[in-house]
Design goal:
Blueprint (H helix, E strand, L loop, with lengths): L1 H16 L3 E6 L7 H5 L11 E2 L8 E5 L4 H13 L5 E5 L1 H5 L21 E3 L6 H17 L4 H7 L1 H12 L3 H9 L6
Parallel strand pairs: 1-2, 1-3, 3-4, 4-5
Helix pairs in contact: 1-5
């Protein structure tokens, strides 16, 4: 029985790795490099990766550009609405360390303090080749069962919640969901 479970999980991980559905959260200039990554020259669809506007079907959140506290609230809500297992790629220098906005009072400096990031892409702006390299790296991690940011988020939810509450105040989720209620359909 244990052997069968092991083989089933390997098969599921392989299937997940070869069918990633991306929802992008383009917060700044980072979105400029995404269309070339999907076109014929680079064509991420050949890896089984497609873009989707629906967060309920997506399993990969691609965050590009700088992140402000206001957009971070939306990113967290989108991430929490995605189904498990789910993955995050942070694209460009801005989500890593705020990039050129490093000294701004209104820019989140380290995204991974608030949500778990599986793969980072450094650079301002990363070229399509770097995006493809990160996608292939994530596919390999998923196939091997090593892309576990979503599990870290569940296991360390109190850590992430404290950081989020410190930045946004108590009961911020309730207030934000109330604001977004018109857009959320279950």
């Amino acid at each position: 029985m244990g052997f069968q479970v092991l083989e089933t999980s390997k098969l599921l991980n392989y299937a997940r790795a070869r069918s990633l559905w991306i929802v992008t959260f383009c917060t700044g200039c980072g979105g400029v490099e995404l269309p070339p990554t999907a076109t014929a020259r680079f064509d991420f669809e050949r890896f089984g990766i497609i873009s989707t506007p629906s967060i309920r079907q997506a399993d990969l959140l691609l965050i590009t550009g700088y992140v402000t506290p206001k957009t971070l609230k939306r990113i967290i809500i989108v991430y929490e609405m995605m189904r498990n297992p789910k993955y995050i790629i942070a694209h460009g220098s801005c989500p890593v360390n705020a990039g050129i906005y490093w000294d701004s009072y209104n820019t989140v400096k380290k995204l991974d303090l608030y949500i778990p990031v599986d793969v980072w892409i450094a650079g301002c702006m990363p070229r399509p080749e770097a995006i493809l390299r990160a996608l292939v790296k994530l596919m390999k991690m998923v196939k091997e069962g090593k892309a576990l940011g979503w599990k870290r988020y569940l296991e360390n939810f109190e850590f992430y919640r404290k950081k989020q509450d410190r930045l946004f105040g108590k009961d911020w989720r309730k207030r934000e969901i109330e604001k977004l209620r018109f857009y959320i359909h279950d």
